[in-house]
Amino acid sequence: MKTSQTAQEVIEELGTDLSAGLTEQQVKERTERYGYNELQEVKKDSLLKRFLLQFTDPLIIVLILAALISIIVDPGEWIDSLIIVIVVLFNAILGVVQENNAEKSLEALKKMSAPQAKVIRGGQKKVIPSRELTVGDVVLLEAGDFIPSDGRIAESFNLQIDESALTGESVPVNKTSEALGQDDVPLGDRKNMAFSSTVVTYGRGTMVVTAIGMENEVGKIAGMLMNSGKETTPLQNKLAQISKTIGMLCLVICAVVFGMEMFSGMGILEAFKTAVALAVAAIPEGLATVVTIVLALGVNKMVKCNAIVRKLPAVETLGSASIVCSDKTGTLTQNKMTVVKTYLPEAGIQDFKAETAGTDVKELMRWFTLCLDGEVIPEAGKLKMIGDPTETALVEASYKMGETKPELAKTYVRSEELAFDSSRKMMTVFYQTDDGILSITKGGPDIVLGRCENFAGQAAAEEANETMAKDALRVLAVAVRRWDAIPENLDSENVENHLTFVGLCGMIDPPRDEVRDAIAQAKHGGIRTIMITGDHVVTATAIAKNLGILEPGQKAISGPELSAMSDEELEAQIEQISVYARVAPEHKVRIVKAWQDKGHVVAMTGDGVNDSPALKAADIGCAMGITGTDVAKGAADMVLTDDNFATIIHAVRQGRGIYDNIRKDVQFLLSSNIGEVLTIFGASCISLIPGWNLGVPLMPVHLLWINLITDSLPAFAIGMEEPEPDIMNRKPRSKDESFFAHGLGWTIAWQGVMIGTLTLISYILGNRDAHEIGMTMAFVTLALSQLFHSFNVKSEHSIFSKQIFSNKYLWGAFAVGVGLQLLVMYVPFLASAFSMAALDPSHLMIAVGLAFVPVIVVEITKLAHRMSQR
Which EC number(s) are documented for this chain (predicted)? Predict the structure, then answer.
């Protein structure tokens, strides 16, 4: 349907009648052709499929194979296989529970649709479920109505529609039934169209349905949500790489050790047991679970910071964000028009402050308040706004100065009016007062000033209007005229002339108080904020400069300018553009993709339906919890419950801290696993030396116990570490940065070799007396060395600093780990199950002493590092 067509042409093309509507037969035929006015649902994976997908991780596959082969080769040793199966099932169940927080964007979109619609069918007015609307239906619109579908305005009687949820435009749009001059018009400028899920704020009108369901603008957004796949986050990619690498290395090492054992003369069964033990040692069974739980703990922390995370990996992703694309209305601003400036000929431009306003300003606001229909009603300790946001801003200003409409009505009795229309851009109201008849005219300054009697300050008033307009203020003028009686001819040319100018009022949707500081903090942390809005360029530019988003050398562009740019041109200029105004939903997605193509991790904030595709396309979408639509919340990875832009900065800090903690956990777990592998591999190598058949130093059940208990508890506690004090002084990580960057890989390797060497020494010393004693000493040294090692990785600082007691959870994990170790060693049935031997004091002291060595070595390296930094 073309916006350049007249209403009558559209009516004829759709085969309907404005006064009679569609016939029941036409409705039936069109419903069969177009379907119902509803949105399609996304087909979701079944619970069974989600469960089965949990077993596609390479580490899990290796563990399952090891368990199956072990039970086939030696059914008598079933306990190790059972423990492996329990571990795998636990991880799978946990994964399904997390993924069960499914996407609900489309359901939310359906809820937003108007439940009922007032239509004319068969010449009669009817109220029907909006689902039953079809193309060509004639819909009646009144103030307060949700628009049930897209349609062409056929009649407009001062009709205004709030389209902020769809276009981002903060001011209601005046609608007309007239044809527009062109067809290729941005969504926010289609003045003769109404769109589904927007709201009538003023006036009344009639529209003819032109699109329903998935064909209307909200439906197109729903389609974009259905078709936009969600890429995995950087953390997921890095952990997947780690899993694949460990899995491949595990298979290679197992094959090598199996061959070595066979070569040394060991039987195939014993050789296989050694290989299975090595597989169990090599695979950090707790890694996926620990990372998931650390992220979940991060979610709990972020709830306290007013951020609800809907998808666990998003916690880490926000910490690596380098670009925040933010909607303006309701996110950076308050989504509430507010009087900020006044102009009076005698006083000039003044900042408006209700508590200090003089009688002249009070009188100015009185005239404005008497010439409008909006109302402000006190309700539960707050002010409830009814009507057009511009008008309610004026009423609120008077209210705060002690003048309410009910009080004014006692003195000023409203008698006649000339309603506002978009062609005159004015409104006039007549009042009966003690001094006679008074008319008050309110409207655009250029129009109202042109209707005023010549006065000395006219040039100054015009200049004041231009000054306030340059500051992106919405400016209105008010003028009055005295009459002996209400004129019989209420024509505009007769009434709205020879006026006496009173003054101007400037309003704006002001920035949130905390946003400027939040943007500055983000910049300090290497994060750039980009404004994306459906508002006009002038307004967006003024707000962006005020907040520090638009800096010298950067520019603002409009949606049509963006449409004219190719993807290559956009990518070439993306770093110079800080503000995008008058944009459509597909523009937002293009902007996000362009930054992502530059290698940035992009966060997108928003609250409206129009933000949903970009929230989905971004690395992390942040929806507003109070003003945000359900659609935006459904598409987002995180919801800010206080609608506070500053919450993003708190979330970034937590995200960076959580990523640090995950790196610490990986350091802890992998260095421990390397120690385990080296213990078994080293024993196998030594066994090749004639006369040095050491046997297997650790059984699979020992390694599973250490990996699940001794390792996992401290790993969870390390995940509770608070972020380092200087964490927001760092620049964001590159999306392509290796997880093992900054020497992490080397650190894991040498610390693992150290733990493995010490464990092997402990085994050899005990094995001279008896194999069970050597195995028990190796078990004690390996378990305790990892418990001690957890304190090494908790911080870059010395464990002997005051920070040693900063993490009570780590001390708890250490105490529990030691206690469980003692139970395994000294409770008879557990000692028997784990093949433990009773250690005399000398053996125990050697095993514990060797376990403490990593603390001393790591402390020496930390000291050397600190000295090199001075």
Answer: 7.2.2.10
Environment class of residue 586 by beta-carbon count within 10 Å: exposed (0-12), middle (13-18) or buried (19+)? middle
Q: Which residues are catalytic?
A: 327
DSSP string, 176-195: -SSPPS-S---GGG-TTEE-
SS3 326: strand
pLDDT greater than 50 at residue 541: yes
The sign of the dihedral angle between the CA atoms of 318, 324, 325, 331 is: positive
**3-state per-residue secondary structure call for 196-262:** CCCEEEEEEEEEEEEECHHHCHHHHHHHHHHHCCCCCCHHHHHHHHHHHHHHHHHHHHHHHHHHHHH
Q: Which of 183, 182, 186, 150 is nearest to 169 (CA)?
A: 186
Q: Which residue has the tokens 């208990």?
A: 709
Chain centroid to CA 663: 23
CA 439 vs CA 364, 371, 424: distances in Å:
14, 9, 16
CA 276 to chain centre: 44
Sheet of 426-433, strand order: 348-351, 338-344, 500-508, 474-483, 436-443, 426-433, 413-421
Residue type, 493: E
Q: Which domains does the chain have, with CATH numbers?
A: 7-41+107-227 (2.70.150.10), 250-302+654-721+741-869 (1.20.1110.10), 316-334+512-643 (3.40.50.1000), 338-508 (3.40.1110.10)
Provide the H-helix boundaries in 442-549.
Answer: 445-450, 458-470, 492-495, 515-524, 537-547
Lookup: tokens for 829: 């049935």
173's enclosing H/E stretch is strand 173-174
Burial call 809-836: b when 16+ CB within 10 Å, e when fewer: bbeebbebbeebbeebbeeeeebeebeb
Q: Please classify residue 636 by burial: count the beta carbons closer than 10 Å to its beta carbon, then call 0-12 exposed, 13-18 middle and 19+ buried.
A: buried
Instruction: Please state, in angstroms and rounded to a whole number, the distance separating the CA atoms of residues 808 and 829.
Output: 32
**Span 854-869, pLDDT tens digits:** 999 999 998 888 888 7
* SS3 (DSSP) at 484: coil
Calculate ∠ Cα 273-276-281, nearest 5°.
Answer: 125
| Count of residues making up the chain | 870
- Determine what percent of the chain falls in helix, strand and coil, rounding each to the nearest 5: 55, 20, 30
Token pair listed for 667: 């350091």
* DSSP 3-state of 134: coil
Helix, strand, or coil (residue 407): helix
Which tens digits make up the pLDDT trace of 682-730? Answer: 888 888 787 777 878 988 778 878 876 778 889 889 988 888 877 888 8
Task: Report how far apart the first and last C-alpha atoms of the chain are (Å, whole number).
Answer: 71
Residues 144/200, Cβ–Cβ less than 8 Å: yes
Most trustworthy range by pLDDT among 274-278, 688-692, 721-725, 764-768: 764-768
Block residue for tokens 């109404």? 194
Half-sphere exposure of 531 (CA within 13 A, CB side): 39
Tokens of 447: 């129009």
Strand, coil or helix: 700: helix
Output phi, psi for 592, to 5 deg: -60, -45
Q: Residue 701: its pLDDT value, please?
A: 77
In this prediction, residue 577 carries a pLDDT of: 97
What phi and psi, each to the nearest 5 degrees, are found at residue 741? -65, 170
Nearest of 358, 389, 347, 355 to residue 372 by alpha carbon: 389
Query: 426 - beta bridge partners?
Result: 421, 443
Q: Quote the Cα angle for 324-326-327, to 5°.
A: 170
- Neighbouring C-beta atoms of residue 386, cutoff 10 Å: 15
CA distance 625 to 208: 34
CB 658 within 8 A of CB 731: no
Beta partners for residue 655, in sequence order: none
CA nearest to 784, candidates 735, 744, 734, 844: 844
